[in-house]
Amino acid sequence: MEEHPKLAEETDPEPTEQSEVFEPDSPEKVEQAERILREANLARVRGNATVADRLLKEAQEMAPNSAVVLEAIGDDLVKNGQFRKAKEAYQRAMKLDPESKSIETKYGEMVLKVDLFIDPFTMQDQFSGYASPKIAIGLTIICPGLGQMAVERYVKGGIMMALYIGSLVGVSFVRGGFGFLTGKAPFEPLAGVLLMVAAATFLWALVDLGSIKNKAPKRIDPPAPPTEWMNR
After folding, report:
1. Domain ranges of the chain
2. 8-46 pLDDT, tens per residue?
3. 184-189-192-197 Cα dihedral, nearest 10 degrees
4. Helix (H/G/I), strand (E/B), else coil: 213
5. Torsion of Cα atoms, 116 then 120 then 121 then 122, to 10°
6. How far apart are the two ends of the chain, measured CA to CA in Å?
7. Which residues contact 201 (CB under 8 A, 6 or more apart)?
8. 162, 173 Cβ separation under 8 angstroms
9. Which CATH superfamily groups domain 5-117+224-231?
Protein backbone atom coordinates (compact mmCIF):
# COMPACT_ATOMS: atom_id res chain seq x y z
CA MET A 1 0.00 0.00 0.00
CA GLU A 2 1.41 3.38 -0.97
CA GLU A 3 1.67 6.15 1.59
CA HIS A 4 -0.33 9.30 1.01
CA PRO A 5 2.48 11.89 0.90
CA LYS A 6 0.22 14.87 0.42
CA LEU A 7 -1.73 14.07 3.56
CA ALA A 8 1.46 13.51 5.52
CA GLU A 9 2.97 16.79 4.31
CA GLU A 10 -0.08 18.76 5.31
CA THR A 11 -0.32 17.25 8.78
CA ASP A 12 3.38 17.43 9.71
CA PRO A 13 3.62 21.20 10.41
CA GLU A 14 2.54 22.56 13.77
CA PRO A 15 -1.15 23.48 13.58
CA THR A 16 -1.94 27.15 13.25
CA GLU A 17 -5.17 29.04 12.91
CA GLN A 18 -4.67 29.30 9.16
CA SER A 19 -3.81 25.61 8.72
CA GLU A 20 -7.10 24.68 10.39
CA VAL A 21 -9.10 26.42 7.66
CA PHE A 22 -9.63 24.26 4.59
CA GLU A 23 -10.90 25.81 1.38
CA PRO A 24 -13.32 23.34 -0.24
CA ASP A 25 -12.51 22.28 -3.79
CA SER A 26 -14.69 23.44 -6.65
CA PRO A 27 -17.78 21.34 -7.47
CA GLU A 28 -16.23 20.43 -10.82
CA LYS A 29 -13.09 19.02 -9.21
CA VAL A 30 -15.13 17.20 -6.57
CA GLU A 31 -17.30 15.63 -9.26
CA GLN A 32 -14.24 14.45 -11.19
CA ALA A 33 -12.65 13.12 -8.00
CA GLU A 34 -15.82 11.20 -7.10
CA ARG A 35 -15.84 9.65 -10.57
CA ILE A 36 -12.25 8.51 -10.01
CA LEU A 37 -13.22 7.15 -6.60
CA ARG A 38 -15.99 5.10 -8.17
CA GLU A 39 -13.44 3.61 -10.54
CA ALA A 40 -11.08 2.94 -7.62
CA ASN A 41 -13.83 1.24 -5.65
CA LEU A 42 -14.73 -0.92 -8.64
CA ALA A 43 -11.08 -1.87 -9.12
CA ARG A 44 -10.80 -2.85 -5.47
CA VAL A 45 -13.95 -4.97 -5.68
CA ARG A 46 -12.40 -6.75 -8.65
CA GLY A 47 -9.28 -7.43 -6.60
CA ASN A 48 -6.99 -5.00 -8.42
CA ALA A 49 -5.49 -3.21 -5.42
CA THR A 50 -2.66 -1.60 -7.39
CA VAL A 51 -5.04 0.18 -9.76
CA ALA A 52 -7.32 1.12 -6.86
CA ASP A 53 -4.43 2.71 -4.96
CA ARG A 54 -3.32 4.65 -8.03
CA LEU A 55 -6.83 5.94 -8.67
CA LEU A 56 -7.27 6.93 -5.03
CA LYS A 57 -4.08 8.95 -5.27
CA GLU A 58 -5.36 10.61 -8.45
CA ALA A 59 -8.60 11.54 -6.69
CA GLN A 60 -6.62 13.06 -3.83
CA GLU A 61 -4.55 15.14 -6.24
CA MET A 62 -7.69 16.24 -8.08
CA ALA A 63 -9.59 17.36 -4.95
CA PRO A 64 -7.40 17.27 -1.82
CA ASN A 65 -9.92 19.29 0.18
CA SER A 66 -12.99 17.23 -0.61
CA ALA A 67 -14.68 15.59 2.38
CA VAL A 68 -15.63 12.60 0.22
CA VAL A 69 -12.04 12.11 -0.93
CA LEU A 70 -10.64 12.51 2.57
CA GLU A 71 -13.16 10.00 3.91
CA ALA A 72 -12.11 7.51 1.23
CA ILE A 73 -8.45 8.09 2.11
CA GLY A 74 -9.26 7.51 5.77
CA ASP A 75 -11.08 4.28 4.91
CA ASP A 76 -8.08 3.08 2.92
CA LEU A 77 -5.69 3.97 5.74
CA VAL A 78 -7.84 2.06 8.25
CA LYS A 79 -7.80 -1.04 6.05
CA ASN A 80 -4.00 -0.86 6.06
CA GLY A 81 -3.67 -0.31 9.80
CA GLN A 82 -2.55 3.34 9.62
CA PHE A 83 -5.01 4.49 12.26
CA ARG A 84 -3.33 7.74 13.29
CA LYS A 85 -3.22 9.03 9.71
CA ALA A 86 -6.79 7.83 9.22
CA LYS A 87 -7.85 9.87 12.25
CA GLU A 88 -6.21 12.96 10.72
CA ALA A 89 -7.97 12.37 7.40
CA TYR A 90 -11.37 11.95 9.05
CA GLN A 91 -10.77 15.02 11.20
CA ARG A 92 -10.09 17.14 8.12
CA ALA A 93 -13.09 15.65 6.35
CA MET A 94 -15.30 16.43 9.35
CA LYS A 95 -14.24 20.08 9.26
CA LEU A 96 -15.20 20.25 5.60
CA ASP A 97 -18.49 18.40 6.10
CA PRO A 98 -19.51 18.65 9.78
CA GLU A 99 -23.00 17.31 8.99
CA SER A 100 -21.74 13.92 7.79
CA LYS A 101 -22.70 11.23 10.31
CA SER A 102 -20.52 8.57 8.68
CA ILE A 103 -17.40 10.75 8.92
CA GLU A 104 -18.20 11.67 12.52
CA THR A 105 -18.63 7.99 13.42
CA LYS A 106 -15.38 6.95 11.76
CA TYR A 107 -13.49 9.80 13.43
CA GLY A 108 -14.87 8.72 16.81
CA GLU A 109 -13.72 5.16 16.16
CA MET A 110 -10.20 6.39 15.43
CA VAL A 111 -10.17 8.51 18.60
CA LEU A 112 -10.94 5.33 20.54
CA LYS A 113 -8.30 3.37 18.66
CA VAL A 114 -5.50 5.96 18.69
CA ASP A 115 -6.04 8.04 21.84
CA LEU A 116 -7.80 5.65 24.24
CA PHE A 117 -6.27 2.38 22.94
CA ILE A 118 -9.74 0.81 22.66
CA ASP A 119 -10.57 -1.27 19.60
CA PRO A 120 -14.08 -0.26 18.45
CA PHE A 121 -14.17 -3.16 15.97
CA THR A 122 -13.97 -5.88 18.65
CA MET A 123 -15.69 -4.12 21.53
CA GLN A 124 -19.13 -4.88 20.10
CA ASP A 125 -18.51 -8.61 20.48
CA GLN A 126 -17.39 -8.19 24.08
CA PHE A 127 -20.61 -6.42 25.08
CA SER A 128 -23.05 -7.99 22.62
CA GLY A 129 -25.14 -9.47 25.46
CA TYR A 130 -25.27 -6.35 27.60
CA ALA A 131 -27.88 -4.28 25.79
CA SER A 132 -30.55 -4.22 28.51
CA PRO A 133 -30.67 -1.15 30.77
CA LYS A 134 -30.57 -3.29 33.93
CA ILE A 135 -27.33 -4.97 32.92
CA ALA A 136 -25.89 -1.62 31.79
CA ILE A 137 -26.66 -0.15 35.22
CA GLY A 138 -25.12 -3.20 36.87
CA LEU A 139 -21.94 -2.69 34.88
CA THR A 140 -21.92 0.97 35.87
CA ILE A 141 -22.12 0.02 39.55
CA ILE A 142 -19.04 -2.15 39.03
CA CYS A 143 -17.22 0.63 37.20
CA PRO A 144 -18.69 3.85 35.78
CA GLY A 145 -18.34 3.87 32.01
CA LEU A 146 -18.86 0.15 31.44
CA GLY A 147 -22.61 0.68 31.11
CA GLN A 148 -22.07 3.37 28.48
CA MET A 149 -19.86 1.04 26.48
CA ALA A 150 -22.55 -1.63 26.67
CA VAL A 151 -24.96 0.71 24.88
CA GLU A 152 -22.43 1.92 22.31
CA ARG A 153 -21.36 5.20 23.94
CA TYR A 154 -17.69 4.30 23.80
CA VAL A 155 -16.05 7.72 23.98
CA LYS A 156 -18.17 8.86 26.91
CA GLY A 157 -17.70 5.51 28.63
CA GLY A 158 -13.93 5.70 28.21
CA ILE A 159 -13.86 9.20 29.69
CA MET A 160 -15.94 8.09 32.68
CA MET A 161 -13.73 5.08 33.33
CA ALA A 162 -10.59 7.22 33.12
CA LEU A 163 -11.99 9.80 35.55
CA TYR A 164 -13.26 7.23 38.04
CA ILE A 165 -10.26 4.91 38.07
CA GLY A 166 -7.80 7.80 37.86
CA SER A 167 -9.40 9.49 40.88
CA LEU A 168 -9.27 6.34 43.02
CA VAL A 169 -5.68 5.64 42.01
CA GLY A 170 -4.84 9.25 42.82
CA VAL A 171 -6.23 8.88 46.36
CA SER A 172 -3.94 5.91 46.96
CA PHE A 173 -0.94 8.12 46.19
CA VAL A 174 -1.99 10.86 48.61
CA ARG A 175 -0.39 10.68 52.05
CA GLY A 176 -2.50 8.38 54.18
CA GLY A 177 -4.49 7.17 51.18
CA PHE A 178 -7.95 5.98 52.16
CA GLY A 179 -6.96 5.85 55.82
CA PHE A 180 -8.88 9.00 56.73
CA LEU A 181 -12.14 7.15 55.99
CA THR A 182 -11.49 4.82 58.94
CA GLY A 183 -9.75 7.37 61.13
CA LYS A 184 -6.34 5.75 60.73
CA ALA A 185 -4.89 8.81 58.98
CA PRO A 186 -5.55 12.56 59.04
CA PHE A 187 -7.85 14.02 56.42
CA GLU A 188 -6.11 15.24 53.27
CA PRO A 189 -8.04 17.81 51.19
CA LEU A 190 -6.63 16.46 47.94
CA ALA A 191 -7.88 12.97 48.75
CA GLY A 192 -11.31 14.42 49.50
CA VAL A 193 -11.39 16.24 46.17
CA LEU A 194 -10.41 13.10 44.28
CA LEU A 195 -13.12 11.08 46.02
CA MET A 196 -15.65 13.77 45.13
CA VAL A 197 -14.59 13.49 41.48
CA ALA A 198 -15.05 9.72 41.63
CA ALA A 199 -18.48 10.08 43.25
CA ALA A 200 -19.54 12.73 40.73
CA THR A 201 -18.43 10.48 37.87
CA PHE A 202 -20.44 7.60 39.32
CA LEU A 203 -23.58 9.76 39.53
CA TRP A 204 -22.94 11.15 36.03
CA ALA A 205 -22.79 7.62 34.64
CA LEU A 206 -26.07 6.63 36.30
CA VAL A 207 -27.90 9.77 35.17
CA ASP A 208 -26.56 9.37 31.65
CA LEU A 209 -27.86 5.80 31.46
CA GLY A 210 -31.29 7.05 32.44
CA SER A 211 -31.47 8.94 29.15
CA ILE A 212 -30.53 5.94 27.04
CA LYS A 213 -33.29 3.89 25.49
CA ASN A 214 -32.91 0.15 25.26
CA LYS A 215 -31.35 -0.76 21.96
CA ALA A 216 -29.54 -3.81 20.69
CA PRO A 217 -25.93 -3.22 19.73
CA LYS A 218 -24.99 -3.54 16.12
CA ARG A 219 -21.89 -5.13 14.73
CA ILE A 220 -19.36 -2.54 13.57
CA ASP A 221 -17.24 -3.77 10.71
CA PRO A 222 -14.06 -1.99 9.65
CA PRO A 223 -15.00 0.93 7.37
CA ALA A 224 -14.92 0.29 3.63
CA PRO A 225 -15.16 2.80 0.77
CA PRO A 226 -18.82 3.86 0.37
CA THR A 227 -20.52 1.51 -2.05
CA GLU A 228 -23.00 4.15 -3.17
CA TRP A 229 -20.31 5.60 -5.43
CA MET A 230 -20.66 2.54 -7.64
CA ASN A 231 -24.37 3.18 -8.10
CA ARG A 232 -24.13 6.80 -9.20
Report:
1. 5-117+224-231, 133-210
2. 444 444 444 444 556 777 888 888 988 999 999 898 889
3. -150
4. coil
5. 80
6. 27
7. 144, 160, 163, 164, 167
8. no
9. Tetratricopeptide repeat domain (1.25.40.10)
**Rounded CA separation 135/42 (Å):** 44
Q: Measured in whole angstroms, how far is the alpha carbon of residue 112 from the centre of its chain? A: 4
The amino acid at 128: S
Query: What is the pTM for the complete model shown?
Result: 0.45
Please report, for residues 13, 85, 131, 176, the alpha-carbon distance to residue 9 in angstroms, rounded to integers and kept in the order given: 8, 11, 43, 51
- Tell me the per-residue pLDDT of 41-73, one tens digit each, with 9 for 90 and over: 898 889 898 998 999 999 889 988 888 999 999
* Distances 2 to 50, 82, 106, 140, 206 between C-alpha atoms, Å: 9, 11, 21, 44, 46
